[in-house]
Every structure is written in C-alpha cells, then in structure tokens.
Amino acid sequence: MSRPITPAGIRPPFARYSHAVEVPAGSRLVVCSGQLGIGPDDAVPPTVEGQAELCFANIRAILAAAGMDLSHIIRINAFVTGREHLKGYMAVRDRIVADPPPASTLMIVSGFSRPEFLVEVEVIAAGPA
C-alpha cells in the first residue's frame, strides 16, 4: 500500500528507516499522540528497552482500536533523554516495525513530564479508507 522512497542519489539511511513514505490517495490516516513507557498500572520500567516496549504496546492498542496494526505505521517520531538510550530504543523499534520500515526521526531531549521517563514515541499510520 504505502511506498518507501529512498533515492539512490543521497546517502542511505543511518539505520532501519526509509527516507520517505508515499501514501496513496484515498488512504485513511491515524495520528497518534506521543506514548510514554508506562503501563495501565502506572508502572514504569527502569530501562529504555522496557519503556520502548510499552510505548509500542500502547501504539499497537491505539491502532487496533482504529482497525489498523503496526504494519500501517508510515512515520515514527521518537525522543530519548540521552545518547546512551539510542541503541536500546532502536533495537526495540527495529524488531517491531514492519518491512519496508517507516520514515523515522529520533531526537535527544532534555526530559519529559516525569524524570523516570526515558523515551516517548509518536506515530502516523495509513490504511485503507
């Protein structure tokens, strides 16, 4: 359905993502707010990997409520609180996202609403109308 765009004339992506994703006309878009690594019981795992797992579990639930799944993700914006968290977050992301991978941006930020949060993930998904 969606088409990844990675032109030959520019440097290939640094990691497992597409430079762009084209969404066909008539698709339905779902825009998810940023999801933090917190469970329904308010538990927050101490590691970026554990938190990233919960971020994507929350996203999976949101997309399911819209009749979509993780394979419909066309764009990811992720935020971590330090360089030391990049590798752990990317390992979870790379295991979870479908092929071809979505467009993706990963930024280092100074923090979130609570100091124990290490990662936040927001996505855009596209599916059939």
UniProtKB/TrEMBL annotation:
<dbReference type="InterPro" id="IPR006175">
    <property type="entry name" value="YjgF/YER057c/UK114"/>
</dbReference>
<dbReference type="InterPro" id="IPR035959">
    <property type="entry name" value="RutC-like_sf"/>
</dbReference>
<dbReference type="Pfam" id="PF01042">
    <property type="entry name" value="Ribonuc_L-PSP"/>
</dbReference>
<protein>
    <submittedName>
        <fullName>Enamine deaminase RidA</fullName>
    </submittedName>
</protein>
